[in-house]
Amino acid sequence: MTRIESARKGFITEEIKEVSRDESVSPEYIAKGLSEGTIVITRNRFHNIRPLAIGKGLRTKINANIGTSKDRVNIEEEIEKLRVIIKYGADAVMDLSTGGPIKELRRSLIKESSIPVGTVPVYEAAVRAVELYGSIKAMTEDLLFEVIEEHLSDGVDFITVHGGLTLKAIERLKKDRRLLDVVSRGGSLLVEWMVLNEKENPLYEHFDRLLEIAKRYDATLSLGDGMRPGCLEDATDRSQIEELVTLGELRDRALDEGVQVIIEGPGHVPLNQVELNIKIQKELCKGAPFYVLGPLVTDIAMGYDHIAAAIGGAVAGMAGADFLCYVTPSEHIRLPTIEDVKEGVIASKIAAHAADIAKGIPSAIEKDRLMARYRKELNWEGQISLSFDPEKVARLRAEIPPSLQEVCSMCGELCAIRTVKRALGNQ
């Protein structure tokens, strides 16, 4: 029996109790969200980690992507990235490896990870087809589903599957004359396969087979956005929205079978369209948890795309997005370094926290209230401990030390808080 089926029968499991404590909501609220498809719990039966709940009324979660490419294969470096991701508060990690011993890296990450691990199985299926037969055209439907089952049997907690990318969607793409066609890597691989083979996407045509596999592992399907906009000019166009309609239909089929579903959302969206995109998804997909890449609110922030994504992510989260995928400073440029990963996580955490304050999440509001008290008290240890990067805060304070220990070197003895305390007799 899956989590959804169990919740519908009225069972309050230990797992539900655990996430309800983490989220400061009632177990009944979690169970209702599971049964209605507005909340998912991401944990594979074979991955011994703390369960993570994503969805309506809960804290905004963030995901961080890592993984190799053929240009750089270093398993130890990817493991170190995982450690950094966990240290700075990511809620989940995705292994997007396309180079080197993909299977070995995935299994190493799952073993090391204390947070949910996601993957995009079509990457590995495409790589295998090219290695074995010389072309992605030779990727059989059976190979794709075998790789999917292999990922889940290894303990992967959620998988991205681009089931909404159909032959009809490709025809729409041609009519739309998009500036940046398809920027989803998984989506582009499936487009190429469908065009070369003149066949429908197996993840759409054989969606029931996918559901049967996911149900055995009680895994979460993240329905990928193969038509997500890769630039502002393509945002909220018919290709994107028509795929979203298809994803909403697949969401209904999955829920009927007791399979948990997340819907993936856009990439590049003008700031004034971010809230609109969230509302459209929530309507078409009946409140299913929404997972967004950023979104980035400008196309020209290269080197600082983590900031562009954090701006979009804060607005998206405030509007109802449930899961933010981080973006690093090296997005669109190179494979991210360990430092890039750290910067990306922190930027995304700030966005998620800002969104949670706007949503009225009590734990988020209390952290800021506590920080204000620490500042009034000139309690530097407290301020540092509450920051997103305590080591950096401590280092910056030590680099230009203040003349008076209780203040900072910007205002020194003219510190406003110290001055008013003295004036009001509270010093």
Offer a quick outline of the entry:
The protein is α/β, with parallel strands linked by helices and 427 residues long. The chain has helices spanning 3-8, 14-23, 27-36, 75-87, 102-112, 121-133, 141-154, 167-176, 185-197, 202-205, 207-217, 238-256, 271-284, 305-319, 338-359, 362-376, 380-386, 390-399, 416-423; strands spanning 39-42, 52-55, 61-66, 92-95, 117-119, 158-161, 220-223, 260-264, 290-293, 323-325. Helix content is 53%, strand content 10%.
Describe what this molecule looks like in 3D.
- This protein has helices at residues 3-8, 14-23, 27-36, 75-87, 102-112, 121-133, 141-154, 167-176, 185-197, 202-205, 207-217, 238-256, 271-284, 305-319, 338-359, 362-376, 380-386, 390-399, 416-423, and strands at 39-42, 52-55, 61-66, 92-95, 117-119, 158-161, 220-223, 260-264, 290-293, 323-325.
- The protein has 427 residues and is an alpha/beta fold.
- The strands form two sheets. It has an eight-stranded parallel barrel, surrounded by seven helices. A two-stranded antiparallel ribbon has the order 1-2.
- Helix 13 (271-284) links the parallel strand 8 and strand 9.
- The N and C termini lie far apart (63 Å).
- 45% of the residues are buried.
- The mean pLDDT is 96.
Average pLDDT value? 96
What is the SS-derived class?
Answer: alpha/beta
Low-confidence stretches: none
**Helix content bin:** 40-55%
Give the SSE order as H and E letters.
HHHEEEHEHEHHEHHHHEHEHEHEHHHHH
Side-by-side strand order of the widest sheet: 3-4-5-6-7-8-9-10
